């Protein structure tokens, strides 16, 4: 058959139409409890969006296998926000226009800030997946939205407290970060937690001014020399993603392991070990939102872990898997208990219910709908005996509710 | 006949846009409103590229200036003067474009101007991301849709689809303004400069002045589009003027056709239609969208508008159209 322009265009148009059809067909099924998932599935942010999608799909599969919600199957309707507020708003308006009343959205703050003002008009209930920005539960607080994520004061204040408890012998800490507001917030929260716990024990601790590195930089050697020359035995590193990998790789040649007694990474958790393998630092603490081995005895965590290994063949899931699973679980549990999709009934149900999720008991502070679950920290490092080249040595958990910042719904936290 | 068919099609499409809220999903209405704004934005870019022969890769920065001006003034409680705020945003965008043009156009054109404007837009984006008063990386959310007063009549744009219809009217006026500029004496002079700068200068045209005015007008319209967009999206972030925004008009113009006044608008609507049709294909959407765009650009080097004009001409007079197609490969801007 000869392919001319007309054939090509006709076939392409038919193809696009046919591919778009499943969405139309799904919308006509009607009986299922539909949950809209809006996340970033294209561009650099898709790394997190893919974890969120996997976690939500695992939740839907598990819940449907257990009979769904009051006999009705759960259907996840996924849309890409293209990591822009207008992409998120387009997806939100399309899904609300199709009658969807339940939403999970995450994780970038600006995209959530784009949809939050629309919740009232659309009369919907939302769980914000993995979001950490303070604005979401403070100045931009919306009573229809629940943040299943960890704020900086909560997880890094807890981190500082844990380090003060675990290493009282360390009286001087160095910090390293990029000049980015979110990373400054993390550093400040860690410092605050560390100092408060140390002072409570009647001791004093010095935290040096942060050594700043360029965001997205590739050469960190000068800054590594500076922190090694600081004489501090403790180091809190707040670089993220690719920056952190380059930094640890370069720091290895400076003998970082030998220069510091305690090395702390803010939140890169297993991304470092997976990237560096046998070159992982000898011992490194990190915060994580969910680590299955720290939740032994929690059947939901075990099941989600198994499902993820089956799905991706990866024994060390990113914490977004657990958080996104629990976001769907929170919504499904509320619908089951309230027997309704009506936000007026769902909101008080979510506020009072504490379902068992992969992260433990899922509970929100009533005043500002901030997540008040447990905090998890892991210590891992190089291990020649393990085929991966690294192992997890230690885990610690703290009650997150104790570290939640003051609730100021509707106004900025001072 | 060509004009009659194209005019009728345009009228049908305009009517479909105005009536969209009566039958379409609210997501589609939002997308249509966004597309109208970016189509006007693309049109302003093509005034510069297709008519004055200047390529700017930083037009997103001017769009962002308009959006932020509107967001800040609305946050400041000036929503009662909405039409004045649009004028203010437009004027600021025009002034910034004029200042850049005065410095840049004498010294650089072509790729140098493109890179310079791209660098300035990125500088603006990074600066906005560091100013806490403007919300830093998270921008300014919850922008209110204000009331618009014309004489004694006041319309609450926050109600229902009022802001969508306001966008229809505002974008139509901006398109008419662009048409008037492009098809008047000023537009014809710009085309002369684009085709042969030295010859135009020899004929007594102050080429620098004309290009500077075109740069200023294009910047003002881009900022105006940004100011309309802020209350529509109800949030502005530094990424509103990022590199992707600056490449949008280039992509739309390539797709729709740089040789036609309507090309950038056709490109904008076509691109949105492709994106919306493939929205459920998570993971492969970019591949399909990119493949379709590549196919269109390869099959229709003069863009969709060029192909449409050729089709209508062929239907009207097949023999003449064929002879004309053989005779011309590079075509100037066509009304």
UniProtKB/TrEMBL annotation, chain B:
Question: Predominant location of this chain?
Answer: membrane
| Superkingdom per UniProt | Bacteria
Q: What's the protein's topology in the membrane?
A: Multi-pass membrane protein
Q: Which UniProt keywords apply?
A: Cell membrane, Membrane, Transmembrane, Transmembrane helix
Q: Where, by residue number, does the polypeptide cross the bilayer?
A: 47-70, 82-105, 111-128, 163-182, 212-230, 250-271, 291-311
- What Pfam families does the entry give? BPD_transp_2
InterPro entries to which the protein is assigned, alphabetical = ABC_transp_permease (IPR001851), LivM-like (IPR043428)
The UniProt record lists the keyword Membrane: yes
| Localization per record | Cell membrane
- Name of the protein described by the UniProt record: Branched-chain amino acid transport system permease protein
Q: Which organism is this protein's natural source? A: Aminobacter ciceronei
């Amino acid at each position: 058959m000869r392919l001319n322009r007309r054939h090509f265009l006709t076939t392409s148009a038919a193809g696009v139409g046919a591919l778009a059809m499943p969405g139309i067909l799904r919308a006509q099924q009607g009986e299922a409890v539909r949950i809209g998932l809006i996340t970033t599935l294209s561009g650099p942010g898709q790394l997190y969006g893919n974890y969120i999608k996997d976690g939500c799909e695992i939740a839907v599969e598990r819940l449907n296998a257990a009979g769904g919600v009051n006999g009705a199957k759960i259907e996840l309707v996924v849309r890409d926000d293209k990591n822009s507020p207008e992409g998120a708003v387009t997806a939100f308006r399309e899904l609300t226009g199709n009658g969807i009343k339940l939403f999970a959205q995450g994780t970038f703050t600006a995209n959530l800030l784009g949809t939050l003002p629309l919740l009232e008009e659309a009369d919907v209930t939302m769980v914000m997946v993995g979001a950490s920005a303070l604005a979401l539960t403070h100045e931009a607080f919306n009573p229809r939205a629940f943040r299943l994520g960890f704020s900086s004061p909560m997880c890094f204040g807890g981190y500082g407290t844990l380090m003060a408890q675990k290493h009282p012998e360390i009286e001087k800490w160095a910090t390293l970060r990029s000049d980015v507001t979110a990373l400054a917030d993390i550093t400040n929260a860690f410092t605050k937690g560390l100092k408060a716990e140390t002072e409570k024990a009647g001791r004093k601790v010095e935290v040096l001014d942060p050594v700043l590195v360029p965001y997205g930089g590739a050469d960190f050697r000068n800054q590594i020399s500076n922190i090694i020359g600081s004489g501090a035995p403790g180091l809190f590193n707040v670089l993220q993603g690719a920056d952190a990998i380059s930094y640890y790789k370069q720091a290895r040649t400076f003998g970082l392991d030998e220069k510091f007694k305690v090395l702390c990474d803010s939140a890169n958790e297993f991304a470092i070990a997976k990237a560096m393998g046998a070159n992982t630092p000898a011992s490194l603490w990190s915060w994580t939102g969910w680590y299955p081995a720290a939740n032994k005895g929690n059947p939901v965590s075990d099941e989600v872990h198994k499902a993820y290994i089956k799905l991706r063949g990866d024994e060390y899931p990113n914490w977004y898997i657990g958080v996104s699973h629990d976001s769907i679980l929170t919504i499904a549990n509320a619908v089951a208990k309230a027997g309704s999709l009506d936000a007026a009934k769902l909101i008080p149900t979510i506020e009072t219910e504490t379902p068992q999720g992969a992260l433990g008991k899922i509970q929100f502070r009533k005043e500002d709908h901030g997540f008040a679950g447990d905090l998890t920290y892991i210590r891992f490092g190089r291990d020649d005996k393990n085929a991966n080249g690294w192992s997890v040595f230690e885990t610690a958990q703290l009650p997150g509710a104790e570290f939640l910042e003051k609730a100021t719904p509707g106004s900025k936290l001072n | 006949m060509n004009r009659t068919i194209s005019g009728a099609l345009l009228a049908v499409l305009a009517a479909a846009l105005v009536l969209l809220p009566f039958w379409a999903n609210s997501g589609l209405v939002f997308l249509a409103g966004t597309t109208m704004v970016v189509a006007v934005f693309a049109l302003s870019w093509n005034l510069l590229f297709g008519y004055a022969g200047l390529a700017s890769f930083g037009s997103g920065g001017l769009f962002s200036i308009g959006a932020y001006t509107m967001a800040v003034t609305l946050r400041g409680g000036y929503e009662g003067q909405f039409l004045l705020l649009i004028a203010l945003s437009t004027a600021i965008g025009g002034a910034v474009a004029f200042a850049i043009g005065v410095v840049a156009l004498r010294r650089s054109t072509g790729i140098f101007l493109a890179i310079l404007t791209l660098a300035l837009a990125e500088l603006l984006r990074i600066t906005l991301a560091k100013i806490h008063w403007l919300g830093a990386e998270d921008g300014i959310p919850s922008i209110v849709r204000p009331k618009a007063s014309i004489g004694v009549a006041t319309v609450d744009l926050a109600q229902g689809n009022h802001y969508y219809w306001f966008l229809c009217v505002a974008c139509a006026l901006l398109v008419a303004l662009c048409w008037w500029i492009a098809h008047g004496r000023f537009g014809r002079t710009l085309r002369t400069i684009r085709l042969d700068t030295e010859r135009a200068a020899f004929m007594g045209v102050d080429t620098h002045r004309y290009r500077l005015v075109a740069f200023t007008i294009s910047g003002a319209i881009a900022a105006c589009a940004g100011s309309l967009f802020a209350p529509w999206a109800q949030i502005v972030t530094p990424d509103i003027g990022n590199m992707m925004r600056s490449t949008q008009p280039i992509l739309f113009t390539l797709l729709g056709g740089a040789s036609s006044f309507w090309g950038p608008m056709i490109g904008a609507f076509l691109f949105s239609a492709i994106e919306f049709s493939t929205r459920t294909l998570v993971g492969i959407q970019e591949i399909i969208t990119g493949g379709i765009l590549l196919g269109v650009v390869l099959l229709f080097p003069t863009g969709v508008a060029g192909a449409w004009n050729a089709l209508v001409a062929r239907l009207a007079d097949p023999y003449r159209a064929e002879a004309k197609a053989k005779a011309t490969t590079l075509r100037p801007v066509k009304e």
